[in-house]
Each structure stands twice: as structure tokens, then as C-alpha cells.
């Protein structure tokens, strides 16, 4: 035993050294799939690896993503959407079926390194009006029981991603943190259960939303590198809302005797469009400083050990609900097609790299016909509304990248978005003869008229990218898992 352990230790050190030598800093990211034309999963997996992401969080057990992640060396947190909670809470058999199909199956048949299951997503959001308050805990209990029954009780941890509004502080100081009184008992049950089963708590923190929702929010405090308006909390000085928010949770946990409860940041990021505060400059400033902190292993004042931090998010998603705001479709550090939005140092001087092997539809756009200038304004307005309902016009609003277009270009943008969403079908560029197809790029930077990904071409010639080096890493990872599982 002892010999095996020291062998393992040396082996792990060697691996760790190899990782460092390559500059693998261990970044984590959310991979959302709410796009009309999602990138092929194998391209995304290569994008993750190329940029040093070794952990990924999925919002659902998407078969394509889970298969592509198999033997990739990337650890996976797989999510369960809120609308499945009732069924999972109602019978342990349902949870067993879910774990069998969506966890065990991928681990055993595809070598997917699933490490945790995120049960629900921000179930206590006040907008949900207590819908999930009665199902979240029994769903957690049932999934945990199912994981244990499947023999995965040690390997796969349970968690619940929470919105930061589960806790409060009346003084405005992190040290005053406490759980919302109506959730106090439930939170205690959840936290105790997670702790007893080796799970962890997940918290989503959004400095952007703090800034966006409150015109009086001190802008610099949303970022990491200006100390001009700090918050003084006893002996601790907070220079950014991210640390202050995180520590409010830590102090709420400490107050309830759970000061050692592991906490993971499930979502944090900055959108690039769809709001005056959502732009490339702010996103770059926030995200670069965030990545630097992660790479340096920086924790918060109350908890020096750095948490795992899942950046939100990997790519833009043009099919997300815009209820929270137009920015909701622009959280990606990459665009919808895996191209780079802004330069980022991903750690140790390694520059961010774009997705490779992406195939596009033809270089053509749908624009308002020049001869349609004096048409019936009602028809035009209706056409734009229709195009925007089915396409994506979230860049057209005030303060957004296409917010300064004249009326003609504005209509063109809407028409083109619809046309691209509809795979450039000829019928999708008619609008009662108000629109025509052009091969001249109508983009007016910073406003870009995009061309959509060609899903069909992409499927016809699937890219085979996984290098043999990656395969070997995957085998080592599996070996270590096996050894650790049986001897430690
Ligand atoms: C997971 O498993 C269940 C079986 O309980 C199935 O109905 C469901 O569609 C699966 N997929 C996802 C994405 O949850
Ligand atoms: C820091 O923030 C303050 C307050 O917003 C601002 O006046 C100051 O110019 C900022 N400092 C730098 C170096 O950006
Ligand atoms: C913070 O960093 C950004 C670049 O990441 C830079 O543009 C900005 O001036 C910095 N602000 C301060 C106060 O250092
Ligand atoms: C452009 O279109 C959007 C979406 O229909 C609309 O909200 C906006 O007012 C339009 N702007 C102009 C300048 O026509
Ligand atoms: C676009 O083409 C892809 C691949 O053929 C297809 O799956 C998708 O449904 C099409 N979208 C529309 C809106 O027709």
C-alpha cells in the first residue's frame, strides 16, 4: 500500500510537472448549448483543450457533448435542468434512471470524466416564486442515492448551483452575511446533506448584473484592479464586488457552523454586447483579471484557498431567452462560431486561440433592397419584427454594437439575421420584396453582419482532431482514477 502510494505521488508530481511545462493552468468554463447553430461538439472539445480548459460545466446531459468529452482529459460537471426536478424528487427510481442514462453510461461507454452533477440551476431565484422549493432537496437526496447505488458515490459529487440572492447582508458588509430567513432551514438541510456526502456548494456571482441593474453602483468596484472605492469590513478591505459577494456567503456559512464547506463559483463572466455596460473593453478588463486570479490561485480575503471558478461562458448563444436583457446572448469569451472576441492571456503568456475547422454558409447577406426606400412603413415594421422574433436582433439596441445604424441598415441587420438563421434559404430573404441577397459585406464596424455556421457541411465531414497525445493523457487520467479509486 505504502509503496503504491509513494509511486502514485511521484507519478502525480510528474504529471503535474508535465502540465506546468505545457502551461496548463487548469481553467474551467460553462458550455451552453442554446444556439440555433451550435458548434460541432468535437470542435468545441478541441477549443477547450487548445485554451487550457480542463473542467467544463454543462447545463444538461447533452449526448453529443458528453460523447465528445469522452477520453479528452477534461473533467465534467453535468447539469439537471429545473424542469426535471419534480420528476426526480417524486421517485428514487426516476433518479436511478437518470443517473444510469446520463452519467454511468457516459463514464463506462465513452470514458467521459464526469466528476459532479449540478442539480437544478439557481432554483431559489426569486423570479421562480418558490416553484422549486419543495422539490430541490428530495431531488438532491434521490440523485445522491442513485449515484451511490451506481457505485459512483465517491467519484461523482452532487451540488446545487445557487444564485447569490440566497444570502444577504444588511450592513452591506460581507461579515454580516446570512441566508434568506425563508430559506434558512432548507439551506441548512441542503448544506448538511452535501457535506455528509462529500459534495460542495456552487454559487453564481455576477458583478456585471450589479452594475447593470443599479445606476448608482460604483463602476470600478465591479472590476478587479482599481482600489479607489474600497469597502472596509473590519480588518479586511474589499476592492471588488466579486470577493465581497463570495465572502458574504462564506460568512453566512461560518455563522451556521459550515465554515469548511467547499464552495465552487459556478458562473462568473462579462457579456460583450446588448447593453451599454456590455462591451469588449469591459469584458476584456474583467475577464483578463479574472483569469489572472485563477491562474495565480488567488482566493478571497475570508477564504484564501482558491475555489474552482467556471467562467460564464464559452460561446455566445443566439437562442437564449432575452428576458434578463439583450446581453444574455453575448456572454461568450468566444463568438457563436468559436472565433475570438478580444485577446486574452490564458495563463503563462499563452494567447487565446480560436476554434479550428469551422465551416460557414456562403459569403452572402440579406439586406434591405435599395429600391424599397419609400415602402409602406407598416409592412417594413412588421417585417423587421418578424425577422427579429426568429433571428437575433440583440445587437441593435441602445448602446450595443449595432445601436448606431440608420433605419435602412437597421432593417438590413434584422433581415440578414433571419436569413442566416434560416440557413440562407432564398425564401428567407423576401419580406414582401423589401429585401435582396448581396455578396457585398454590409458590416459597419463595430456592427458585424454575421454569416452562419453550415451545420450540414460540418456533419458531412466530421473533423477528426483528437491528437494521440490527448489520447495518452486520457489513458493516464483513467489509470490514476482506477488506482486511486481502489487503493486510497
Ligand atoms: C437523462 O435520463 C432520463 C431518464 O431518466 C431521460 O429521460 C433524459 O432525457 C436523459 N437526458 C437528459 C439530457 O437529461
Ligand atoms: C479608479 O476609479 C476612480 C473612481 O471611479 C476613477 O476616478 C479613477 O480614475 C480610476 N483610476 C484609474 C487608474 O483608472
Ligand atoms: C485595469 O486593467 C485594464 C486592462 O485589463 C486597464 O485598461 C485599466 O486601466 C486598469 N485599471 C487600473 C485602475 O489599473
Ligand atoms: C432598429 O430595429 C430595432 C429592432 O426592431 C428597433 O428596436 C430600433 O428602434 C430600430 N432602430 C432604428 C434606428 O430604426
Ligand atoms: C439549418 O440546417 C441544419 C442542417 O441541415 C438543420 O438542422 C436546421 O434545422 C436548419 N435550420 C433551419 C431554421 O431550417
From TrEMBL:
Signal peptide location: 1-23
Reactions the enzyme catalyzes: Hydrolysis of (1->3)-beta-D-glucosidic linkages in (1->3)-beta-D-glucans
Pfam family, one: X8
Top-level enzyme category: hydrolase
Keywords linked to the UniProt accession: Disulfide bond, Glycosidase, Hydrolase, Signal
PROSITE patterns according to UniProt: GLYCOSYL_HYDROL_F17
InterPro entries linked to this entry: GH (IPR017853), Glyco_hydro_17 (IPR000490), Glyco_hydro_17_plant (IPR044965), X8 (IPR012946)
Annotated EC: 3.2.1.39
Domain of life: Eukaryota
Occurrences of domain X8 (ranges): 364-449
Protein family (similarity comment): Belongs to the glycosyl hydrolase 17 family.
Protein name according to UniProt: glucan endo-1,3-beta-D-glucosidase
Protein source organism: Hibiscus sabdariffa (roselle)
